[in-house]
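Researcher: We plan to redesign the surface later, but first we want a full-length starting point. Tokens attached.
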């Protein structure tokens, strides 16, 4: 799961943080607003060392499961010109089965269990943190799963590269709630992402969103209920501790 991590504690700037600081300094120099040109991310990426077990898993299974679509080493953007289309899906998974994409797969337990239970469905796990990617590699490799791949990519960038109707379902389970008002812009469920997901989904596609944070559930409704092309298949009662919302495309 992606946890609320607002400020780095190790004193080192990640590549993304350094780029954002450079944007702010450049904007200030020519009179533009401080946020001009900055990419708002739904996470704060921290450096994290892998223990020996996870390092071995990365070395053993990355070539099998980890997609090579990044713009460069350490980048969370897709490379220039990359298109996530049926031809790429067929080449990567070796079939034309329906594809489910999980945003923020964390340690991988959910997506690996789903892939093991549904071998006739393809799965793609999107995760930005090294330990989560490595643990997902470990779980998938131990079961020798054929229908799962992992991308260490900022999720909105993947959906921008996806062609229309290429994805059957999108899962976003218990995303980082970013509870402070000034951080709400970092919440992953936003109109721009919703528009790209809507375009990438098949005609009967579903975006499944789950949260145990009441305020986030309300945020989801504030975003999704204003959008054309989705309707709510869930029975949301925000006072419940855990609730599931399924958003289905209108035909």
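Model: Full-length starting sequence:
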């Amino acid at each position: 799961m992606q946890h609320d991590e607002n400020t780095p504690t190790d004193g080192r700037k990640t590549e993304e943080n350094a780029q954002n600081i450079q944007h702010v300094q450049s904007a200030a120099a020519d009179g533009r607003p401080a946020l001009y040109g900055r990419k708002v991310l739904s996470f704060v990426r921290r450096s994290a060392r892998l223990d020996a077990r996870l390092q071995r898993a990365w070395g053993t299974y990355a070539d099998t499961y980890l997609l090579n679509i990044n713009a460069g080493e350490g980048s969370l953007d897709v490379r220039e010109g990359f298109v996530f289309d049926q031809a790429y899906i067929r080449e990567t998974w070796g079939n034309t089965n329906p594809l489910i994409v999980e945003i923020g797969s964390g340690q991988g337990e959910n997506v690996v269990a789903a892939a093991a239970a549904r071998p006739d469905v393809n799965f793609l796990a999107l995760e930005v943190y090294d330990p989560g990617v490595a643990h997902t590699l470990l779980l998938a490799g131990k079961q020798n799963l054929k229908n799962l791949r992992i991308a260490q990519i900022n999720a909105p960038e993947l959906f921008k590269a996806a062609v229309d109707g290429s994805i059957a379902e999108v899962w976003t389970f218990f995303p980082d709630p970013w509870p402070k008002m000034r951080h709400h812009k970092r919440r992953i469920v936003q109109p721009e992402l919703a528009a790209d997901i809507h375009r990438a989904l098949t005609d009967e596609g579903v975006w499944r969103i789950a949260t145990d944070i009441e305020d986030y559930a309300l945020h989801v409704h504030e975003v999704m209920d204003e959008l054309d092309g989705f309707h709510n298949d869930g029975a949301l009662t925000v006072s419940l501790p855990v609730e599931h919302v399924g958003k289905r495309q209108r035909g």
